[in-house]
Amino acid sequence: MLNESSRRAYLSAMQVVQWLPRTELPFAAPSRPELLAPPVIAQPVVAPQADIRPAVAKPAPKAPGERPKIEIPRPSASGKAASKPVEEADAAPVVAKPVQVPPPRFALQLLRAGACLILAELPTGEPFQSRDPSYLLLKDMLRAAGLPDAPQIIGEPVRWPLLVRGQLDQGPEAARDFVQGFVLAQLEAAPCDCLWLVGLPAVRFASEANAESYNLELQVEGLGSAWALPGLELLIDEPQRKADVWKAMRLLMTRWKTN
Description:
By secondary structure, the chain is an alpha/beta fold. The protein has a domain at 106-162 and 169-255: Uracil-DNA glycosylase-like domain (Uracil-DNA Glycosylase, subunit E), CATH 3.40.470. Helices cover 32% and strands 15% of the residues. The protein has helices at residues 4-13, 33-36, 77-91, 133-144, 172-189, 200-206, 232-237, 241-252; strands at 106-113, 116-121, 152-160, 194-198, 217-220, 224-229. The protein has a 6-stranded mixed β-sheet with strand order 3-1-2-4-6-5. A hairpin with a 3-residue loop joins strand 5 (217-220) and strand 6 (224-229). It is rod-shaped and about 155 Å long.
């Protein structure tokens, strides 16, 4: 075990100026308090930055009576180029998405009675049955008009929409084109003197009329003369409408009666 004098001699030979033992040494002199204090880390000194802003020249004194000059900023070429895309973007038209109209739903049956074709709404969506009140009313109307009361059913009922699913357009315009094309094909095969449109779907999609045209004669392009009538169920529910139907029938009866 080295004593203090020998220990200092070894440290001096190794050029160790300051040292601090890890454990307490026997026969060693007391440690100096300044050696036990934590080291102080010097902070870097930042030199102050010089003010590099350009000096603003002071305006020269104005002469008496001289008006001050006002500088108007003029847009540069780069400014015009930068603003052009913004102006073009603002001027771009906004395209509105078309509103999807749900397809109409109806069922129509085409019949022939003498010189007339009847396009009638099927109240239940099913073909006419011989004992249906609506079919019995139609037979009474044909008899009153001087037409055969046992009309011939032509083809299957027209049911719209045609497809339950799919991308096919089945809106009102497509429904009108289909119904008119269907009736026109029958007229080309066997012309008629007057087309009865019975019920609002028949009036709306075989022509471009509505309920306000009930009991009126219509001229439909491609289909000729047509007579707009309320639906059979509506006539059953509101019997007072039958008087207007009978009045209009007497005015139009000459179109299909030959004697």
